[in-house]
Structures are given as structure tokens and as C-alpha cells.
Amino acid sequence: MKKFEERLDRLESLTDSIRNPDIPLEEALSLFEEGIKLAKTLEKDLDKIEGKIQILMNQPGLNDDKPELELFSDEDVGN
Fold first, then answer.
1. Which residues does UniProt call coiled coil (predicted)?
2. d(Cα 42, Cα 31) in Å, to the nearest integer?
């Protein structure tokens, strides 16, 4: 399987090709089908990456920052 960036480049290339008004309808349909398949694989990869990010963000001990107790400073409130 190609890298994510390669597939994204291919999808952009397909999009540009489909926009060409001189392209035959059958070829445009074929490119469209390929684009839909590529878009679905890219979406799956993004979902996996998002899941990994959520796991990393929710791991205890990674966020050592103390909680911010005040939402607004005195200047923001106008005091």
C-alpha cells in the first residue's frame, strides 16, 4: 500500500483530471471511482490516526501541567 501522502497526491491528480472539460465521460467516471476508493482509504487512515491521538492525549502522566483554575484574568473581567 502506498504512503498516505502518495495516495493524497494521486487523489488531487484525479480531481484535477476530472475537472478537465475535454475528458471523455467514461474516463471521468473511471477516475471518479478510483478517487472514491482512495478517499475511503484515506478516511480510514485518518480515523486510525485520530484514535491514536486520543489514546495519547488521554494517557495519565503526559499532562503534568497544573489545572488552570481561573478562566479569566482580572483584566479580562474589567476589574
1. none
2. 16
